[in-house]
Design brief:
The protein is α/β, with parallel strands linked by helices. Strand 4, helix 4 and strand 5 form a beta-alpha-beta unit. The radius of gyration is 19 Å and the shape is globular. The protein binds nicotinamide-adenine-dinucleotide. Nicotinamide-adenine-dinucleotide binds next to helix 1. The site of nicotinamide-adenine-dinucleotide has 32 residues, from helix 1.
């Protein structure tokens, strides 16, 4: 998709971090934008912050884990803008993991938001994009944690590997419809993701308290706080949408970690191909 002027976008997690930066970049490129988010006050502030962009900016409350909520947000977007060409399935949360924190509520929450949220977005918007026939682009926010698991036995990388997998499949299916797919895989970005639990619905029970004195956590938190600026991530996303790129990497230094994983996989194939003794 070369041109954003006059095109409408729907972005989940639009009230904060990468989602908000993406909405700002789309508006600056001439697009109309619907910010969708579960956090009402942050959403209102985010919409207000984009009011001077000169574009049509709206906000809608939406819980991506709930298909009824996503369908309602989609209908509000169609009513506001008519045709929608860009879908950003970006909302995401992190929760504690590791073999000492196997809480099923954590798994359900993170899977519902990070994985089922993407499915709900595609389910609500793809029929509309197919029907208007003008093509479009879907950006699914995964993570570098969808390429290499640095986070132990945890729901976050599980969902991000899944987002990479389903997006690769989706890309093949929608290409003949003139719809592109990009998979955003950043490493550390300076956002509010460390405070994900602020938007954890009660139905998933209380969050496992974070031990902020744990040196591993402190190092991780510092790397998020000093991570890439979300505007830089959004700039890469728009370039990738224009050039119809499937994978969007923002941190080139992660190449060696991905190579290491792939080499281990290729070595296993070499063993499979070796004559058995
Ligand atoms: N920050 C990083 O270092 C980093 C790295 C890789 C990938 N990501 C991914 O980027 C995406 C955006 O996260 P961020 O870093 O900007 O964090 P953020 O916390 O700043 O923004 C996430 C947004 O998602 C919203 N949200 C949470 N649950 C929701 C729900 N059920 N329905 C709708 N909205 C919901 C939050 O209210 C918030 O506005 C996530 O998918 C995250 O996994 C972040």
């Amino acid at each position: 998709m070369q041109e954003f002027v006059g095109k409408a976008a729907f972005v989940t997690g639009g009230a904060s971090g990468i989602g908000l930066a993406l909405c700002r970049a789309l508006a600056e490129a001439g697009g109309k934008v619907m910010l969708a988010d579960i956090e009402e006050a942050a959403l209102d502030a985010a919409v207000a912050s984009l009011a001077g962009s000169g574009q049509e900016i709206r906000g809608v409350i939406c819980d991506v884990a709930d298909p009824t909520s996503v369908d309602a947000a989609a209908q509000a977007t169609f009513s506001a803008f008519g045709k929608v060409h860009i879908l950003g399935n970006n909302a995401g949360v992190g929760a504690r993991g590791g073999i000492n924190h196997i809480a099923l509520d954590n798994w359900r929450w993170v899977v519902d938001v990070n994985l089922i949220g993407v499915v709900n977005g595609v389910r609500a918007f793809l029929p509309h994009m197919r029907a208007h026939g003008e093509g479009g682009h879907i950006v699914n926010t995964a993570s570098m944690a969808g390429m290499v698991n640095f986070q132990r036995f945890a729901p976050y990388p599980a969902t991000k590997y899944a987002v990479v997998g389903i997006s690769e499949g989706l890309a093949k299916e929608v290409k003949p419809l003139g719809i592109g797919v990009s998979i955003l895989c950043p490493r550390f970005v300076r956002t509010n993701i460390l405070e994900s639990a602020r938007n954890r619905p009660e139905r998933y029970g209380p969050a496992t308290p974070t031990d902020t004195t744990n040196p591993l956590y402190a190092r991780f938190a510092e790397r998020v706080r000093t991570g890439m600026h979300p505007a830089e991530v959004a700039r890469r996303v728009l370039a990738a949408v224009r050039d119809d790129e499937l994978y969007i990497f923002t941190h080139p230094e992660m190449r060696s970690a991905v190579e290491e994983r792939f080499q281990a996989i290729l070595a296993a194939f070499d063993r499979a191909a070796a004559p058995s003794l």
